[in-house]
């Protein structure tokens, strides 16, 4: 079994929240001044799916940044911010990558942006081997690295037939390989709806 790289990532968000600028080239900008960010909780590993599932419009992008912090280093700058169309486009690209993986058909359309991370290695006595330590440069880099980790773990990415969200299935995910629903509740709701309309 391949050893996954360890991802070490600390990120900040503005406790005063974020807003959308007006006009062309709309950006998601911090409300607070420099030096007032607070630490985000450590990533759980599922943020990339939240990103892909919820960032489909400007409201979804603003909600995501408010909860998880800005996507790029520029987003931490109160004078700059994240371009909202770039954020939405990244989420769209991620969904297209999931589509390609689920169809087992990469083709020429699949595109993963290059990930910017600081990489070091250390000797791990527990596995008697080198372990790689990745420190992503931004939240966006961390999200794409999560996609890479998921693919490396051999986890399936599937669309729930009830809610349409992407979920993980297969060993170690709590959902069996080939599962059609993201959770037991959606399976029950879907089947009872089918009975009542069929
Ligand atoms: Zn569902």
In words, what does this structure look like?
Helix content is about 35%, strand content about 20%. It has about 200 residues and is an alpha+beta fold. It has a 3-stranded mixed β-sheet. The chain has a 3-stranded antiparallel β-sheet with strand order 3-4-6. Strands 2-5 form a two-stranded antiparallel ribbon. β7 and β8 (about 130-135) form a beta hairpin. The termini are far apart. The model has no long low-confidence stretch (mean pLDDT about 90). It binds zinc ion (ZN).
Task: Summarize the topology.
Elements: E1 6-7, E2 12-13, E3 18-20, E4 27-30, E5 38-39, H1 47-54, H2 58-68, E6 82-83, H3 84-102, E7 117-124, E8 129-136, H4 139-152, E9 156-159, E10 166-169, H5 184-197
Parallel strand pairs: 1-8
Antiparallel strand pairs: 2-5, 3-4, 4-6, 7-8, 9-10
Order of helices and strands: EEEEEHHEHEEHEEH
Strand content: 15-25%
* Biggest sheet layout: 3 strands, mixed
- If helices are DSSP runs of H or I spanning 4 or more residues, what is the number of helices? 5
Estimate the helix proportion, in percent: 25-40%
| Strand line-up across the major sheet | 1-8-7
How many strands in all? 10
Q: Gyration radius, to the nearest Å?
A: 19 Å
Q: Please mark out the parts with pLDDT under 50 across 5 or more consecutive residues, or reply none.
A: none
């Amino acid at each position: 079994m391949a050893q996954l790289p360890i991802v070490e990532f600390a990120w900040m968000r503005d406790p005063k929240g974020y807003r959308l600028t007006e006009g062309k080239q709309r950006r998601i900008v911090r409300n607070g001044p420099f030096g007032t960010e607070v630490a985000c909780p450590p990533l759980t590993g599922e943020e990339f799916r939240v990103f892909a599932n919820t960032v489909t419009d400007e409201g979804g992008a603003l909600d995501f940044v408010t909860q998880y912090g800005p996507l790029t280093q520029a987003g931490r700058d109160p004078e700059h911010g994240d371009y909202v169309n770039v954020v939405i486009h990244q989420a769209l690209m991620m969904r297209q990558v999931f589509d390609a993986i689920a169809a087992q058909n990469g083709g020429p359309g699949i595109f993963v942006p290059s990930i910017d991370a600081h990489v070091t290695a250390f000797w791990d006595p527990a596995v008697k081997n080198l372990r790689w330590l990745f420190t992503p440069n931004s939240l966006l880099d961390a999200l794409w690295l999560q996609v890479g980790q998921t693919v490396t773990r051999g986890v399936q990415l599937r669309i729930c037939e009830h809610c349409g969200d992407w979920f993980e299935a297969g060993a170690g995910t709590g959902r069996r390989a080939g599962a059609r629903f993201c959770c037991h509740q959606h399976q029950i709701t879907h089947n009872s709806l089918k009975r009542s309309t069929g």
